[in-house]
Specification:
heterodimer; A: 275 residues; mainly alpha; two-stranded antiparallel sheet; two-stranded antiparallel ribbon; 4 strands; B: 178 residues; 87% helix; rod-shaped
Chain lengths: 275, 178
Amino acid sequence: MAKAPPIAPMEQFLVHPIVRFAPIRIGGFTLDMSITNATLAMGLAALLICGFLAIAAKREIVPGRLQSAAESLFDLIDATLVGPIMGHAGRPYVPFVFSIFMVVLVMNMMGLVLAFGNLAHQAWTFTATAQLAVTATLAIVTFLTVVAIGFIKNGLGFFKLFMPSGLPWYMLLMVAPLEFLSFMIRPVTLAMRLFGNMIGGHVVMYMFASFVVGLGVFALQGGLAYLAFAGSGVSLALVVALTGLELIVAFLQAFVFAALATVYLNDVVNLGHGH
Amino acid sequence: MQSPASTATAGAAAPEGAAGGLPQFDLTTWPGQAAWFLIFFVIVLVLMARVFVPRIGGTIAAREDKITGDVAEARRMKEEADAQAAAAQADIAQARAQAMKLAADARARAQAEISAKLAEEEAKLAQTGAAAEARSAAAREAAMAHVGEIAGDAAAAIVQKLTGQAPSRAELASAGAA
């Protein structure tokens, strides 16, 4: 008699070392640089991005398919995001926003498209963006970049960001702390949004996928239990539909992260004119 | 199949992550993940800024330049062709006008020549006519002048026949005048 595997939806998010290095201790802080499945997935993502762009970014006036794909992705960030939001002042930040977009997009997509590798317990099928450590790091990088550029561009005028112009002083007393709070909460929302979307989608997909197997094994007992095949089939259909939905979410979350990074950069780059 | 428990025992790092709660909240894995992520992100960012974005952006800009340049070139060539067509049209009009003027001139000249010749011939004819008239008038006059003489001769001849003697000239003249 076949036996259904245990349902462990969180197992796919476990970080386990593949090549161990001795942890580095700096004061009371421990840095373990062991190569884990997360490291492997992130490295593969970086390799895919650079490899794809190295092959696709040709200088043909009439582009081929690969070049068209790369240029469409670039145009999505350059011409439809950074251009309209930041204007000409946004030019220097295109590489930063495009890097964020591509890194999040490829890490999201790898978690879905390469998920078949999960069945064979391949370490590189890990979804790096379903790790709060990774999304928080990217959010903090974005946040610190915004703060640094804010101070470089505006000096102490950076604090005007928290003081909307045209308000009387007694209103400023109330609004400025709120503006400051909403500014400081940005990295948290950035990190949690991406993390939540990724983990949620993967857990739901895992649950329905486990129903396919679980109900199928249950139905093999025969008799009335054969009815469970119907539930198994419905679950399979849902997994297929959810995969499509998650592909959209994977793309959308990458775009949302890039769009918010652009909006936050615009706040400090075009501080004082038109906002 | 590798279970969470076996992973936890194999990896000394995170027993509590597998035991309960989300594995993502196991803070012992955070520094390593963050550091590796930063390393890969910086690699991607540097390559983007140095290689890929200039290359893709440059290609797109070059394409736009080429398209606008080609459109401007085509517009310029069209204008040139239009101007040439207009010039050719003007040339044709001018040539036609010249040809018409030439034809009109030739016609006028021929007309003038014809009328001059006509006038000359007419004058010549008139002259000949007048001369002939004058000649005939002179002849008639001469004939008329001889009529009296002839009549006198005839009368003298008749008178001689009848009377046997020739009348005198004075008698003849007075008879003729009567």
